[in-house]
């Protein structure tokens, strides 16, 4: 379920900032859905942000997932399931001279997983607003349960460190570079998943209790005047991210995007994203015998994915003090696994997925 939430929110940048200004007062209502790999998920999301004077802003959010179905892991080792995840968030921003100080707290609950995360960020504007430096820290503390065993309980602690810089190069060209390091300590595997041993027997997965990961991300956004020589009405975006960790996984993410205004109220976005990764050092599609660490999680195998997406937004009220916009976003995803097989057929596994988001936003 946590992986599905990540897919539904991919592409959202919560860390980068280009100027020392507070977010606008707004409210958002969203409905999201996911379908793929034998799993269905859907639910609402809400956001309410309100300024306090001209120096502070507070926001509250709610995000829900209702998940049902049977993924390839469940089909081969367990029974179909149904669960619900509720996430609540509270955040705030404070403007001090050329800096914005931000904090956030989120808590989520499902039948077998509890999570709490605390975050703090600082965005400092330099050189008359042309450069913005970002520093951030997050701490997460999770509790892992198992529905089939009331006595099972494990903990996971997560620590994330972030640093980034955004630079306005020209009036139509912006570049940013970000780095993050994540330290995981505790129970890192799925309590339900099993590995395959010689002879067809199964055994519960066994992971290391620590994992350190790093990632560099580079973004370039260029404004264009293709259809209006007096104003920038379109833009292209290029993103690249490189990831590596102590489990011997390396991953590359490349994305191209295009954005275009049609008249004043219509805004269209298109993107294509490609992701590839190598397998963890202790991953195996099957094992000849028992080892110290063993995993058959397809997300730790060698695989690639391709995503094609589009979003259309229509701002049907556009007054000085009040604006309303409605939008629809759709993504099609294709996953191909290089060394994870479907035990029912003996063939390499692949699947398609679709995500849908409908939202209404109010600015006031």
Report on the structure:
The chain is mainly β. The protein has 2 helices and 18 strands. It has helices at 2-9, 72-77; strands at 26-36, 39-52, 56-69, 81-96, 99-110, 113-126, 131-146, 149-170, 173-186, 194-196, 202-204, 210-224, 234-245, 250-262, 266-277, 303-318, 323-342, 347-363. The chain has a 16-stranded antiparallel β-barrel with strand order 1-2-3-4-5-6-7-8-9-12-13-14-15-16-17-18. The protein has a two-stranded antiparallel ribbon with strand order 10-11. A hairpin with a 2-residue loop joins β8 and β9 (173-186). The radius of gyration is 22 Å and the shape is globular.
Task: Give a quick set of tags describing it.
single chain; 364 residues; mainly beta; 18 strands; 67% strand; globular
Class from secondary-structure proportions: mainly beta
Q: Strand sequence of the main sheet, in spatial order? A: 1-2-3-4-5-6-7-8-9-12-13-14-15-16-17-18
Give the radius of gyration: 22 Å
| Net shape | globular
Q: Can you count the beta strands?
A: 18
- End-to-end distance: 34 Å
Number of helices, counting only DSSP H or I runs of 4 residues or more? 2
Uncertain runs are 1-18
Major sheet: 16 strands, antiparallel, barrel
Helix content: under 10%
Spell the H/E element sequence: HEEEHEEEEEEEEEEEEEEE
Strand content: over 45%
**Mean pLDDT across all amino acids:** 92
Outline of the structure:
By secondary structure, this protein is mostly beta strands.
Q: How do the helices and strands line up, and which of them pair or pack?
A:
Blueprint: H1 2-9, E1 26-36, E2 39-52, E3 56-69, H2 72-77, E4 81-96, E5 99-110, E6 113-126, E7 131-146, E8 149-170, E9 173-186, E10 194-196, E11 202-204, E12 210-224, E13 234-245, E14 250-262, E15 266-277, E16 303-318, E17 323-342, E18 347-363
Antiparallel strand pairs: 1-2, 1-18, 2-3, 3-4, 4-5, 5-6, 6-7, 7-8, 8-9, 9-12, 10-11, 12-13, 13-14, 14-15, 15-16, 16-17, 17-18
């Amino acid at each position: 379920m946590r992986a599905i939430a990540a897919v539904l929110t991919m592409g959202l940048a919560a860390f980068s900032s280009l100027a020392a200004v507070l977010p606008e007062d707004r409210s958002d209502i969203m409905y999201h859905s996911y379908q793929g790999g034998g799993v269905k998920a859907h639910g609402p999301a809400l956001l309410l942000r309100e300024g306090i004077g001209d120096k502070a802003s507070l926001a509250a959010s709610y995000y829900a997932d209702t998940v049902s179905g049977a993924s390839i892991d469940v089909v081969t080792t367990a029974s179909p399931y149904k669960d619900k995840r509720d996430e609540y968030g509270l955040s705030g921003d404070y403007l001090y001279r050329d800096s914005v100080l931000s904090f956030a707290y989120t808590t989520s609950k499902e039948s077998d997983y509890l999570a709490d995360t605390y975050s703090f960020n600082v965005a400092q504007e330099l050189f008359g607003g042309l450069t913005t430096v970002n520093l951030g820290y997050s701490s997460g503390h999770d509790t892992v349960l198992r529905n089939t065993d009331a006595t099972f309980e494990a903990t996971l602690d997560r620590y994330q460190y972030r640093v980034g810089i955004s630079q306005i190069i020209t009036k139509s060209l912006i570049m940013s570079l970000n780095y993050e390091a994540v330290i995981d300590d505790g129970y890192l595997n799925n309590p339900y998943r099993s590995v395959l041993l010689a002879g067809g027997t199964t055994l519960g997965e066994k992971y290391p209790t620590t994992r350190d990961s790093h990632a560099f991300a580079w973004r370039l956004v260029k404004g264009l005047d293709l259809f209006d020589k007096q104003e920038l009405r379109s833009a292209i975006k290029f993103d690249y991210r490189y990831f590596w960790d102590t489990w011997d996984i390396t991953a590359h993410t490349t994305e191209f995007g295009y954005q275009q205004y049609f008249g004043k109220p219509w805004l269209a976005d298109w993107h294509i994203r490609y992701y590839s990764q190598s397998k963890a050092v202790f991953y195996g599609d099957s094992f000849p015998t028992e080892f110290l660490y063993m995993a058959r999680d397809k997300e730790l195998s060698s695989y690639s994915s391709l995503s094609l997406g589009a979003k259309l937004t229509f701002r049907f009220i556009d007054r000085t003090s009040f604006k309303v916009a409605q939008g629809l976003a759709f993504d099609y995803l294709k996953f191909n696994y290089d060394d994870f097989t479907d035990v029912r057929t003996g063939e390499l596994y692949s699947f398609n997925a679709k995500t849908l988001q409908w939202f209404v936003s109010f600015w006031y």
